[in-house]
Amino acid sequence: MRIVVTGRQGQVVQSLIARGPAAGHVVVPLGRPELDLADPGGCADLLAGLAPDVVVSAAAYTAVDRAESEPELAHAVNAAGPAALARAAAGLGVPLVHLSTDYVFAGDKPGPYVESDPVNPLGVYGASKLAGEEAVLAHHGSNSAILRTAWVFSPFGANFVKTMLRLAGDRDELGVVADQLGNPTSAFDIADGILRVAANLATDADPALRGVFHMTASGETTWAGFAEAIFAASARVGGPTARVRPIATADYPTPARRPANSRLDCGRLDQCHGVRLPDWRGATDQVVAELLRAAG
Q1: β-pair type (221-222, 181-182)
Q2: Which one of 4, 93, 168, 198 is CB 3.0 to 4.6 Å from 240, fit for a cystine?
Q3: Class assignment of domain 2-158+185-217?
Q4: pLDDT in tens, 271-295
Q5: Is 61 an active-site residue?
Q6: Exposure of 283 by Cβ count < 10 A (0-12 exposed, 13-18 middle, 19+ buried)?
Q7: Mean pLDDT, the chain, integer
């Protein structure tokens, strides 16, 4: 299967490039300068020239706090860009897998969110991603799968695991938010899930395989709990550690509000696609070990 994925340096793109060949797929990244989602006018011709079996929409504007002061750019990349991709994929008659986020929810539900729960983004980033979902469904809903994920980490790009390890090299104690709940999810596991979903879409016309799905790792924790697991994994291989001091969200103000509850129920993905991502703890151990090996 030939998969064209938007972006070049993102965590999921890099993970797809790493995982795709082992699963028997050709992964072709498509990003700037050839494709700029802020100005995606030529994407139909670009996609046609690459002859994909499936298109994966992974590139996004992900600067959550900066989005509050750059709403036009965030919406251009996260909404108008996916709309153009969806129209292009529909024109080619190929499935589209689009990545979205837990930030489409307000985070005030007591339990994990299911796909049918009301959406209510707290900020510009979440609103722009929701607009992207709506655009994909409007232009290619009959042959697309939207995968909402959360708290992504990997050896690539900027993420919470890399930040914690870097800060632990300089500090003995770190204050980490302890009143936000979520599902830390490895980009490698996301890539594996995408490949399964993409193969299902390419080989099966069942409408149940289309629509919105949640795809996060099994298990849940807080950011403080995640940090403690990172340092425990680091300690096991002789890496940097720090004491974690739990703090409240109010103690760490940011321009954009974060959902207090980012937990996603992934039962529908398992039921329809047969995809259930593994527990976040094992992936955390693996990513920490890989990062520390790379650092020498």
Answers
A1: antiparallel
A2: 168
A3: alpha beta
A4: 999 999 999 999 999 999 999 998 8
A5: no
A6: buried
A7: 96
